[in-house]
Design brief:
138 residues, mainly alpha, 62% helix
Length: 138
């Protein structure tokens, strides 16, 4: 081995250090892993609340109840899986930890579209009272 030959192992194609890249990926994985664990806990609480406090009887729209349950279970499972996959396949699997954010966005849009399509009001399936429009007095 010549001088500096062992240093080539730690250098990337552009001459940058892989140690710095691995450090940034590690910080990214830690931050989004904490987010995913919090999201999984919130999803678990949502599932418990949907089952115990309200149940399907508390919802005027059974379709929105099923979408809410699917969104909560999907967030819980996706948060846990994507965190495990992100750490398993790091550093190439690091973007997998972002999947729960996409799931939150997509499931929220689906829920809102179905809610609005059912009655034209964003009452989130609970059957909020719709106040009649005021008629002008002449």
């Amino acid at each position: 081995m010549g001088p500096g030959q062992s240093l080539r192992v730690f250098r990337g194609r552009d001459g940058g250090r892989l140690i710095c890249y691995a450090g940034r990926v590690l910080i990214f994985l830690i931050a989004f892993s904490l987010f995913n664990l919090c999201a999984a806990g919130a999803a678990r609480n949502g599932i418990v609340n949907l089952d115990r406090m309200h149940g399907p009887k508390g919802w005027q729209s059974k379709r929105l109840y099923v979408i809410g349950k699917t969104a909560a279970w999907g967030l819980l499972l996706l948060s846990l899986w994507s965190t495990a996959a992100g750490w398993t396949f790091a550093p190439n699997g690091a973007p997998l930890v972002l999947l729960p954010i996409a799931w939150l966005f997509v499931s929220g849009v689906v829920f809102a579209v179905v809610d609005f399509a059912e009655d034209g009001v964003f009452d989130f399936g609970r059957g909020a009272e719709i106040k009649p429009a005021a008629t002008p007095k002449s």
